[in-house]
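Journal club prep — side note

Before the paper discussion, L.F. wants everyone to see what a predicted structure for a comparable chain looks like in token form. Sequence:
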Amino acid sequence: MPHRIVPIGPPASVDILTLMAQSRTLLLFDPDAQPQCWNERMSATEYAVLYSGIQPIPSGHTDDAPVSGPSCTVFSTLSEAEEYAAQQVALIPTLRCRIYDHHGLAIQPIREIRGSQHKGESEISARFRRWAGSILFFGGLALVAFDWSADFKLSWPATIGIRMFPVGLVLLVTELVIVITARRAHRDGR
């Protein structure tokens, strides 16, 4: 006798994330899993979203159970990972999502999506490069010139100046390269 399926009622509303192929959440390092690293537990066709900033709570997580560490969300396609990352960044503006393939952190991320309020962790600002570079460069030159005018009798100004000068020069040259590159990109319409 064939089985009959009887609908019980109207279909329940479905969250957009459940419409995507099943994603899974992996701890970045799980000592209980084999292999332990997140990217070694992915297939070659999967993509992982890693978070910087406040990490979203994984779906299915209850408030009682503590989150045991940083995690990533793995998707079967790049488009699903990008869509999920864009949604998370829209929900949490201070978040940055980076998408990696099965090679993990060994290579650059495939895509990076930043929230509107995300601040980089270790980026040196242009203002710092200009001010610190100028102070170190010209201060170092002034100390060397001062000691030179005294026939290097003091020696400490030249010793300090010689150490300040190259650091200032590196900061100023770095800023100059960044400005020139940005102007070229703007001029070329990139």
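L.F.'s comment for the group: DSSP finds four helices and five strands in the chain. Keep this in mind when we get to the figures.
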